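Sample pair:
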Amino acid sequence: MRPPHTLTPTPHRWHLAGSAAVAALLALGAHGAALAQAWPDKPLKVVVGFPPGGAADQIARLVSTPLATALGQPVVVENRAGANGNIAGESVVKSPADGYTLLMSSGGMVSVNPHISRMSFDPVKDLTPVASAARVLVYLMARPTIEAKNVQELIAYAKANPGKLTYGSAGNGSSPHLAGEMLKSQAGMFTVHVPYRGAAPALSDLMGGQIDYYFDPGIGLANAKAGRTKLLAVGSLKRSPLFPEVPTLDEVGLKGFDADTVFGFYAPAGTPPAVIAKLNTEINKVLATAAVKDRITALGGEALPLTPAEFGQRGLEDSKRFGAIIRERKITAD
């Protein structure tokens, strides 16, 4: 009896199929390389989710200038503040996925906002990590006229006078807000939160005495050096090289206190991988220059070049860490 016909390919057929697959991959790679070489042929826009003067704005402008030189096209920075970066994020998500519109945001876009607000988009699915820019520390600062000389005295006063002290932040759910809630939780004290539309106005009111303390994301360090604020501690696991004499909150007894966040660039999902790769390479080159590294250090942060995959993974890890304090303190966007 004649054996039934089967679909098992002969080695010759496998060879042909394999050759076709290799040819397709080579063609795809050639297309990606050609795309990366042709792009960009017009100006780029970087949308910043916070007001001018804040850490995200300063870092965006710091990177954008040399990036424009490297790409041979202008890079325009546009501030669209509000909703802890959600407004800017939504505008970028709705932009064409062609690499010409980028988002510069604090890590809160991915690691915080989904836990506290109803978002019109999913930052993990609708945005593509392009390149991290900096690890941003937060610094516990108090108004210059406050009687507390250190963290221990601030905590003691707050515990003895529940609700009397106020602390500011860059907005509900911002990293300074989460740091403030971490402090209240670990110290067992109660103070009143005053949210602002960005760190810069909060710093202004701190120096003016309208609030008692806040966690600064680096923009107020010059004021601390000049004595216009009191720098009490660093909200990180390691001291800042700018203030080696200032202890971390971990060192003064709040074990494991870590409110660091990573600021970086994102693109709309679907942006060609070749364009993402080119942007990542050029941004990392910018971050490696002494001038940019020194400026980020002066802002109180640390240049942090990562691959897109590493940047994305860091966001997911931070989401778990911040999600825990958000649930514990019942933090909302309101």
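Confidence is low (pLDDT under 50) at residues 1-18, 20-25, 27-32.
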